Amino acid sequence: MENCTTGDDALQNDIALFQLIVYIPVFSFGIPLNTIAFWVFCCKLKRWTETRVYMINLMVADSFLLFSLPFMIYFTKYDHPIGKLCFTIQNIYFTNMPMSILIITLIAIDRYIAIKFPLKAKILRSPLKSASICGFLWITLIIYSYLHPKFHERKEQLCFRKQSLQPSYISLFSIIFGYFIPLGIVIFCSVQVIKCLKKKTATSPHGTKLIQKAIHIISVNLCVFIVCFSPFYITLLLRFAVDVAGACSLITEVRASIQICACLANSNCCLDAFCYYFAAKEFQEFPSLFPTCISMRCKMNQEQESQPSTDQVMTKTRCTTL
Predict the structure, then answer these.
(1) What dihedral do alpha carbons 269, 274, 279, 282 form, nearest 10°?
(2) What are phi and psi of 164, to 5 degrees?
(3) What is the pLDDT of residues 69-87, one digit of tens each?
(4) Is the Cα dihedral 268, 274, 277, 279 positive or negative?
(5) Where are the domains of the chain?
(6) End-to-end alpha carbon distance in the chain
(7) pLDDT tens for each residue of 121-158
(8) Positive or negative, the Cα torsion across 104, 108, 110, 111?
(9) Which of 36, 59, 128, 244 sits a CA distance of 20 to 30 A from 7?
């Protein structure tokens, strides 16, 4: 299909100005916040946990995404041709945004396992396993980000600007498996963990406070995830539908919507920094919450039978050692 060449220079300038207004505070706050977070998670904390591994990887992904923001403004304002600079920034962008989404998904799965299956958590979870998973994802996404632009170089002439109406089924695959499937996982794990925590009845005010704090952190993280990324990926689906329908007249509006929603999605690399503080608190306090939940479950089982069996005694012993 032919390219849609519409005169939208004024609109592109307005979008570039909007990006400038959004990205300046994101860039200004994001750099110091990520620097502080890097110091906290790499130097301040002493014990390695799954949360610490995931948060360091999330921080690295966010930092690289922050680095690409000034180039995004430049590419929007000016018709920059596809070249080495564009190829490099695209590699950074198409690696680190999906990586941020996948790490948030891994954090949700990790919390789900820790709360829902506390007795199996020692086997299923470990910092080494978390690091191995993150390493595999980094390698996979780096390879994908390198190959992805290769499929479009012959069709497109401008950096970060799809002009052809040729539907990209590779992009559709990335949208579904890169966001909507992780979105379903994050929602499921978060809802299940919140339900599980609400059923807990702590034996002390401190335990109650920890449970309420855990519910609050999980709820906020879920809301930030949905609000930041959903508009962007929904507009990407809309662009795919426009390409399939061949509606050239809608390209300008859809492209503008994608660029505006991308600002909200990219601002997540700054919003994540506000969650670093809560993650650090979780790292220090939540280990005491999980054994509490387990021991309460064991205590309930013990109260149901006055003569506990050997299996119950062994289970209680395992609970106290977590």
Answers:
(1) -160
(2) -75, 155
(3) 888 888 877 777 777 888 8
(4) negative
(5) 9-289
(6) 61
(7) 888 889 999 999 999 999 999 998 888 766 555 566 77
(8) positive
(9) 244
